[in-house]
Amino acid sequence: MMSSLSSFSRRRSAQQPPSDGQLNVHDLLQHAQTQQADVGVDGGMATQNSFNRRRLMSSLQRDPTDFASFADDDELTMPVPMERNVQPEPDVNGDGPLSITTRIEYQAVPNGRSQDIFGLVTLNTDANAVVQGAEDKRQPLDIICVLDVSGSMSGNKIDLLKDAVRFIINESEATDRVGIVTFESQATRHLRLRRMDTMGKDEATRAVIMLNAGGGTRISTGLEYAVEMMERRRHKNSVSSIFLLTDGQDSHAVNFVPPLLDRARNAGCSVYTFGFGADHDSKLLGDMAEKANTPFTFVQDVECIREAFAGAMGGLSSVVAQDVKVTLQCDAQLKKVHTYFPMDTTTPGQVTIKIPDMLAGEKRDILVEMTTPADGASGESVTILRASAKYQSMVTGASTQTPSVEMTLTRTDEQEPAAEPDVEVSIQRQRVEVADVLAEASRLGDGGEFQEAQALLGRQHDRLSSSRVKSSATQFLMQEVEEVRSQMASRQNWNSDVRASVVNAMSMHRMQRSTNTYQTSTMRSAQDTKSMYAAPAVKSWSQKASPGNSMVQQPRAPLSAPSMAGPSQQAPSSSGPSTSAIPRIVESEADEEPEQAV
């Protein structure tokens, strides 16, 4: 009996977190591991341990329904005007970070008759663009991580999720601000929008270490908390985003999410969705991403959460243009504009496409379908479209406009002019076709019409195979279409990872952006197609976060104890950036001696 009581006493002692005012990351890790071990060893203590954890986390927060208290974000190190002074007609500048070009499918068309033809308007950004006067700096960020901590996230999933968030914390600079919200049956704000100086990183790390899984899944509630935080900011970094990751489904979200996405956009904030594992609602997350004009990311392998978050953060750190408005003035009959970004067609003969942002080294292709006029003299050069773009330059901080460029063709007396189609126009036609076919195949799969879906994909594969233009991009698209076709054989296959993989691919093709370059077991061609859309910063950050990277994460110095008043009530710190890194969550870490921060 005494032996049993002694064992119980030792376990109870191990469950109590240090109370000497110097709460260490390693102590917290060891404490959390002891709690998890006790739940497995002594089932009778599981309920009490869970209650104690919830009570501790609850004590760190103010009333989560009091959204007025969310106006407590840290001040910026370099204040940014809350409202930009945008000129009604900005100066034309051909040397800005964004340029615009046009191409046409066939340069010569027969004289005397009209003809349907495709044209291409392409936006390109300078891969080497940097913030003016800050060559060694990047864009400061406001990022709120909205994390699913429902019961299905227990075990290895929650540990890898913590590791991914800690990577973001570690890679943040003192000018960045990070907030943390979790959701299960309800939402909790664990960290206000906190500047990532030394004290901010310490506080964020403590919040992440204490996360535990349990409960249901209310995606919309977690997103609402993040949107409220973004809306109520007293200060704003120019680049802001919400990262939402879930492995579950929320039947209520379809009604509540759309207005939340509108509010996020009005608050100057993007929303990136990450679907984790085989059981998440990829349709909901894909629809959210499309409305937010961002790519949906399917995280099939649990080890890749960190890479996905890192790639998204790296991309945001390289934003060089925001509020991009592309204006097309058409002299030919415009049949269709193939883009998935919002369009304004209120002005006759003019279309304006609105693109939220562009990263350094990225491009956007707008495919236009037109009918050329029949009249014109032979040999005459005819302008059928003019294009220009206005945008907010993140390099100079000023509203900027590109020079107008023209799309022209030449009349000829030849009834069948001998010419090969423009390669780039053909590639973009293939991209748009594949994106649309994947969307239709997804609809058919949801309806159980798998034979019809396979037939549709087979026809698209044949079209690509017989195309007059066969580039490396064509080969990647053919491989992708064939992989999807071969896996859409049954409801069982479709409901596993295949649907999420299809939505991920469709989203990439539509947005021309990827948050990562890793390969998945379902889509072997994914790495190739992702490489078509991953900006340079996305690739470098994703690689930095990959499990095989040789970078060694160093442990941080001891941390001060968390305030029982809650993170939102602590005074902001003015200390500089930390030069030590945050350790990954591994079993051996608790045995290491922490280094002192520099």
> What's the shape?
globular
The structural class is alpha/beta
Using DSSP, what is the number of strands? 17
Please tell me how large the radius of gyration is. Answer: 27 Å
- Main beta sheet: 7 strands, mixed
Quote the beta fraction: 15-25%
Poorly predicted regions: 1-26, 35-48, 51-64, 550-598
Helical coverage, percent range: 25-40%
Specify the number of helices. 15
Mean pLDDT, rounded to whole units? 81
* Cα distance spanning the termini: 50 Å
What does this structure look like?
With 598 residues, the protein is of the alpha/beta class. It is built from 15 helices and 17 strands. Strands 2, 10, 12, 13, 15, 16 and 17 form a seven-stranded mixed β-sheet that branches. The protein has a six-stranded mixed β-sheet with strand order 6-5-4-7-8-9, with helices on both faces. Strands 1-3-14-11 form a four-stranded antiparallel β-sheet, covered by helices on one side. A hairpin with a 5-residue loop joins strand 12 (343-344) and strand 13. It is globular, with a radius of gyration of 27 Å. The two termini are 50 Å apart.
